[in-house]
Design brief:
This protein is mainly β. Helix content is 0%, strand content 55%. Strands 1, 2, 3, 4, 5, 6, 7 and 8 form an 8-stranded antiparallel beta sheet that branches. Pfam families: Cupin_2 (PF07883).
Length: 121
C-alpha cells in the first residue's frame, strides 16, 4: 500500500483561460482518464474553458462556485462533486480556497448508486 498526500504533490501553476491562484498536480493516468489534484487560492479562478472529456471535480476541502454551459452558479463543498460533459464550457471559482480531485476522460458517471459494483456492497 502507498499513501498519497494530495496537498504535497509536485504542482505547477496554471494561468491559461485567465485562471488565477490555480495549481495542479498529476497523480494518476490510464488509457482512458487522468487524475489530478487541484488547488485554488482564496479568490482563485479556473477560467472558463471546454472540458476535454467528461470531467468530475470532487471537493476535498474548502468550497467552490461552479458553473457549466447554462451559466447557473452553484456552490459545492466537501464531499460534493460537479460533472461536466465533453466539450461543455465551465468555470470554477473559490472565495475561500479549495483542494479538489479532478478525474477527466472516458468516464461513465451515472445516477447515484447506479454504477455500484455488487462486490462493493
Amino acid at each position: 500500500m502507498r499513501i498519497l498526500t494530495l496537498a504535497d504533490l509536485p504542482r505547477r501553476t496554471v494561468d491559461a483561460h485567465h485562471s488565477t491562484g490555480f495549481t495542479v498536480g498529476a497523480f494518476g493516468l490510464s488509457a482512458d482518464a487522468h487524475l489530478v489534484a487541484v488547488t485554488l487560492a482564496p479568490g482563485g479562478v479556473i477560467g472558463r474553458h471546454p472540458a476535454v472529456g467528461r470531467q468530475l471535480l470532487v471537493v476535498l476541502s474548502g468550497e467552490a462556485q461552479v458553473c457549466g454551459h447554462e451559466d447557473v452558479v452553484r456552490t459545492i463543498g466537501v464531499g460534493e462533486a460537479a460533472v461536466w460533459e465533453p466539450g461543455e464550457a465551465h468555470e470554477t471559482r473559490s472565495a475561500t480556497g479549495m483542494l479538489a480531485m479532478i478525474v477527466e476522460g472516458d468516464l461513465d458517471i451515472g445516477a447515484p448508486g447506479e454504477q455500484v459494483d455488487r462486490g462493493d456492497t
